[in-house]
Amino acid sequence: MDGGAKGLRGGLETQNYRLVTHRSCEFFPCHKGVPEDTYNCLFCFCPLYLLKDQCGGNFRYLKNGVKDCTNCSVPHGPDSYDRIMEKMGLVMEGAKMLPEDL
User: Fold this and answer.
1) CA-to-CA distance for 71 and 98, rounded, in angstroms?
2) CA–CA distance from 1 to each of 27, 30, 56, 102 (Å)?
3) What confidence score (pLDDT) does residue 11 get?
4) What are the sequence ranges of the domains in the chain?
5) What averages of pLDDT result for each successive group of 10 residues across the chain (102 residues)?
6) Which of 47, 49, 71, 83 has its CA 20 to 30 A from that of 92?
């Protein structure tokens, strides 16, 4: 995915856009198990949430049907950018309108 991202960003020499740590956030760190020095807040709201059981994270469904990602660190680890971008094709497919909706 880096080739596409690099192309979109005009061949940047750095990759600083891949990691954002928001230490002043009231909820930081919002998930346990990720070292604070590599904690990534870029995907604060995980774009894979809507993939249901295809997201690849450690989640559970509550009795009311809500997906609970409390124990998931996928969007916050040091390799989160790559893991999220690998699944964005599925997210984009799920967002497409069906022909009957056009």
Assistant:
1) 33
2) 30, 27, 18, 30
3) 67
4) 16-91
5) 51 81 92 89 91 93 95 90 93 86 70
6) 71
